[in-house]
Design brief:
By secondary structure, the protein is α/β, with parallel strands linked by helices. The protein has helices spanning about 20-30, 45-55, 70-85, 95-105, 160-180, 185-210, 210-230, 235-245, 250-265, 270-280, 285-295, 310-320, 335-345, and strands spanning about 10-15, 35, 55-60, 85-90, 110-115, 125-130, 135-140, 145-150. Helix 8 (about 235-245) runs antiparallel to helix 9 (about 250-265).
Length: about 350
């Protein structure tokens, strides 16, 4: 057995009510004038947080958008300069955390991330950005948030239609970690546990919004994020970045719909991973069980309902095979186009 295991140096503060530790955590990072970040829809919560922090906050920038468009980052950087901010507090989903990371890339400001979805971006050194309809991903230690506060109470307000797909987005990190080029015994353990916890908690999160289920899902999302950070991803993430970035589609919903089809693409090429995924899902067939979960907690049953056309699928297949990520089954255009066609029709994977 030979492997390399790299762990990202973040400080994780987890638990109900942990948002109450924010002052201490800001101090620990030596932040005196924080800029608080959020999406427009969560500006109320961001302003409330800023009010409780008083003069430790220099402003609120509530314009974060999905896929981190570079023009939004440019506007945020202007606010950083104007307000003389010396640190960032990003409270929200992957879009808000992505904006913090993009600002940190340019400024190296310390970041405190407070995730409120299951995207996992807060523990990775990856940053996906879009410019002129094209999404590119980079990796830099500069973008990794120094501290993460996971407070499951913050996910109580997350609508079921966001929570379910976001949880499957986390499962996707864990699924691809099991057949990643850099897969190793530690990340595989974390990946299997993440899938197990999310599979058991997500239906409850979506149906009852129970506190225990939300805590379980958030803890699993952290594990899955660590997997994403440690081993790199494969075809599924490539196709989701391509579809999401090119057609401006909702990130988590695309992950939720595509994951069973990407798993089916790799079914025969990654038998050990498939068996661990199936085991975590208490099922016989990994892609089939992922499809059942996706339908149970997701919003979309097929790719057609995202408004894509046949020509869009051709374009996505062309783009996805350019500079492909490592994948257990070689990535060829014919196979990728067939995978997209199956997802378009909502066929059994
Ligand atoms: P998001 O951050 O856009 O959130 C989805 C919606 O939910 C938004 O409208 C947001 O305002 C709302 N929301 C978030 N938290 C809420 C709460 N507690 N209550 C009510 N509403 C809430 O979506 P996402 O799926 O979390 O993140 C997607 C983005 O993250 C994409 O840009 C993707 O590329 C990026 N991402 C990056 C990585 C990485 O490692 N770089 C990993 C995963 C995702």
């Amino acid at each position: 057995m030979r492997f390399v295991y790299t762990s990202a140096p973040s400080r994780i503060v987890f638990g109900e009510g942990r948002l109450g530790d924010i002052r201490d955590e800001i101090k620990r990072l030596e932040i005196r004038r924080a800029l608080v970040l959020s999406t427009p829809t969560r500006s109320g919560a961001a302003n409330e947080l800023a009010a409780t922090l008083g003069d430790a906050v220099t402003g609120v920038f509530a314009e974060a958008r999905m896929h981190t468009p570079v023009d939004v980052t440019a506007r945020a950087l202007e606010v950083v300069r104007r307000t003389n901010a010396d640190g960032l507090v990003a409270m929200g989903g992957g879009s808000t955390i992505g904006l913090g990371k993009a600002i940190a890339l340019h400024t190296d400001l310390p970041q405190l991330a407070i995730p409120t979805t299951y995207a996992g971006s807060e523990v990775t050194s990856y940053l996906g950005q879009t410019e002129a309809g094209k999404k590119t991903t980079l990796s830099s230690p500069k973008v990794l948030p120094e501290t993460v506060i996971y407070d499951p109470e913050l996910t109580a307000a997350l609508p079921a239609k966001v929570a379910g797909p976001s949880g499957v987005n986390a499962i996707a990190h864990a699924v691809e970690a099991l057949y990643a080029e850099a897969a190793n015994p530690i990340t595989s353990l974390m990946a299997e546990e993440a899938i197990r916890r999310l599979a058991r908690s997500l239906p409850d999160v979506v149906q009852t919004n129970g506190a225990e289920a939300r805590a379980d899902a958030l803890c699993a999302a952290w594990l899955a994020g660590v997997c994403l950070a440690s081993v790199g991803m494969a075809l599924h993430h490539k196709i989701c970045h391509t579809l999401g970035g090119t057609f401006d589609l909702p990130h988590a919903d695309i992950h939720c719909l595509m994951l069973p089809y990407a798993a089916a693409y790799n079914r025969d090429a990654a038998p050990e991973a498939m068996s661990r995924i199936a085991n975590a899902l208490a099922a016989d067939d990994a892609p089939g069980a992922l499809r059942a979960l996706s339908l149970k907690v997701g919003r979309y049953a097929n790719l057609k309902d995202f408004g894509l056309t046949d020509a869009d699928l051709d374009c996505a297949a062309d783009l996805a095979v350019q500079a492909p990520y490592h994948n257990p089954r070689p990535v060829d255009r014919h196979g990728v186009r067939a995978m997209l066609a199956a997802a378009y029709d909502g066929a059994q994977p």
